[in-house]
Amino acid sequence: MNKHQKPVLTGQRFKTRKRDEKEKFEPTVFRDTLVQGLNEAGDDLEAVAKFLDSTGSRLDYRRYADTLFDILVAGSMLAPGGTRIDDGDKTKMTNHCVFSANEDHETIRNYAQQYAPLLAVFSSQGQSELILLQKVQEYCYDNIHFMKAFQKIVVLFYKADVLSEEAILKWYKEAHVAKGKSVFLDQMKKFVEWLQNAEEESESEGEEN
After folding, report:
1. 186 burial via Cβ count (<10 Å: 0-12, 13-18, 19+)
2. 3-class SS of residue 78
3. How far is CA 172 from CA 128, 141, 169, 195, in A?
4. Around Cβ 26, how many Cβ atoms within 10 Å?
5. Which of 33, 169, 175, 203 has the smallest C-beta neighbourhood within 10 Å, fewest atoms?
């Protein structure tokens, strides 16, 4: 064989391509698996938490982050504008979501403790927290039914230690995105004022001590 010729291995190219082929993006399969597990857990939030934790090793939560967020917050996949997909099919919906929860402090706190570890994975440092805030802002803007819920979602994440005070203040002052900013900044105004006052009080107490 001429030393300048490259050897050809018949069939190898096809096999390499098959092995390197990207895995299909199948959000509906992800939804079906997640919804089925949540519904099988019944009313036991601890069982729900265990299911989500164990399933995280099999399902790609990062890849299907939008679908995961839809289900945990609204109970099903959403079409653009916030309308539920397959609303009439109960096998594709779950009541284990924030929007179906009773609006009392204890219930919401339990949901926050169930979902916080999942979201904390995406927000383990300041920059990641800002990205999460921006994603929530864009999500609520793109799904119009969620626009009024933005402040509630942010406060929920703050109470669950997913978002820090510093990240929220930075987002409010300079790091928000353009989508619906006037609406969302207005929603957050009172909470931000409360955070700033609490911070000032804490600094004053520190100086006195």
Report:
1. exposed
2. strand
3. 15, 16, 5, 11
4. 13
5. 203
